[in-house]
Design brief:
Length: 388
């Protein structure tokens, strides 16, 4: 990245950690196919298994319950399946319930038909509506199979920490399964699969300083697994066929080890910068609306609306001044659509919202510069607002 750029879009993707880069470079030197039994194969296998242990440790799971995939999106598509296996016996899932603020990776419903997917609303403060979830589960028609619920631990746009434990209790009281999307929570809050009560978790390497194109599905137990999505060779114990991307997995493992350590210190430093940013922006624009400010948020995220400034316009203005941030979530097409998260919270999504997300390498100088730029943009908006 150019030296004069300020990268404040860590929720879209985090810069590659030096440790992850080194692990990947070493892994690229390995020739063997990890499924081969010779020494070269065993060397590649050892790298994968070491990384698997790190990924498992990040969420308090055991390594054999980690299925490595090419993205969290793939992991979501693997686990969001109407057909599971309990040991050798098939187990049917009748309906999937996803929260209205899920990332599209989950919100699209994986392998469920659109008619088999229900939506869990969120409260105006951006939290999954547990009473609504309870009502949906109570009304679930079990004739076609069990209910499955998918909720995220932390929302990628607002940074709001979701009541996942409580959701898991409600789901289990009705005999259902729960998937927790831990992509934005990993490395930001403690994430323990047993403590959460999640049956399954998904993770993505590139949100924690690993490479793009590596993810994982982590199961709480070994017996209950979705039917495979990618079939072929017996890799990943038959749950995900295809020769493993050894280098990407090595980078994922290194990033997972990093994410696990020093969480509190990192959060204290990042949270202080985020608070400085929001105080600076409020000072420049007292009418600034920070979404989720009244509930628990991860330390690194600020999602805000500046009345009179369209989010797309704001994003371009920041970009021209050297600051990378998002207008809502990064969208694959590069287009900025209305935020489904703001809409779900009952907010006017027309103006939209800007997301600034920080990371461990963010500096106080960068934050002060971002506030300066924000101040200039906010002043211009008042002029154009008055003219409009
Ligand atoms: N879930 C959440 C909450 C995300 O923020 C993202 C990435 O933006 C994903 C899932 C998808 O992850 P991946 O890019 O590995 O497919």
């Amino acid at each position: 990245m150019a030296k004069d750029r300020i990268y404040l879009d860590w929720n879209a993707t985090a810069p590659l950690l030096e440790g992850a880069r080194q692990a990947m470079i070493s892994a690229l030197a390995l020739t063997g196919n990890p499924s081969s039994v010779h020494a070269e194969g065993r060397a590649a296998r050892a790298v994968i298994e070491a990384a698997r242990r790190e990924v498992a440790a990040l969420v308090g799971a055991t390594a054999p319950n980690v299925v490595l995939t090419a993205s969290a999106t793939e992991a979501a598509n693997l686990v969001l399946s109407p057909v599971f296996r309990m040991g050798k016996a098939p187990l049917a899932i009748g309906r999937l319930y996803v929260s209205a603020i899920e990332h599209p990776a989950v919100r699209e419903g994986g392998r469920f038909a659109p008619g088999q997917v229900g939506e869990i609303p969120v409260t105006p403060s951006g939290l999954i509506d547990l009473a609504a979830l309870e009502a949906l589960l109570a009304a679930h028609d079990g004739t076609a199979g069990l209910p499955m619920v998918a909720v995220m631990a932390v929302n990628n746009e607002t940074g709001i920490v979701q009541p996942v434990r409580e959701a898991a209790r409600l789901v289990h009281a009705r005999g259902g399964l729960i998937l927790v999307d831990g992509v934005q929570a990993a490395g930001r809050i403690a994430l323990d699969i047993d403590d959460l009560g999640a049956d399954f978790l998904i993770l993505s390497a590139h949100k924690i300083g690993g490479p793009k194109g590596a993810g994982a599905l982590i199961a709480r137990g070994e017996t209950l697994m979705p039917s495979p999505l990618v079939r072929g060779g017996g890799q990943e114990k038959g749950h995900r066929a295809g020769t493993e991307n050894v280098a990407a997995i090595a980078g994922f493992g290194a990033a997972a080890a990093w994410a696990r350590d020093g969480l509190d210190e990192r959060n204290a430093a990042i949270g202080a910068l985020r608070d400085r940013l929001e105080a600076g922006m409020r000072n420049a624009a007292p009418d600034l609306v920070v979404h989720g400010a009244g509930v628990a948020r991860v330390a690194n995220t600020s999602f805000f609306t500046l009345p009179g400034l369209k989010a797309e316009t704001g994003q371009i203005a920041f970009d021209l001044e050297g600051v990378a941030l998002s207008a809502g979530a990064a969208c694959s097409s590069g287009k900025v659509g209305a935020s489904h998260v703001l809409t779900a919270m009952g907010q006017d999504a027309k103006t939209g919202a800007l997301r600034i997300s920080l990371g461990a390498a963010t500096t106080v100088e960068e934050i002060d510069r971002a506030v300066e730029i924000f101040t200039r943009i906010a002043a211009r908006r008042k002029i154009s607002g008055a003219a409009a």
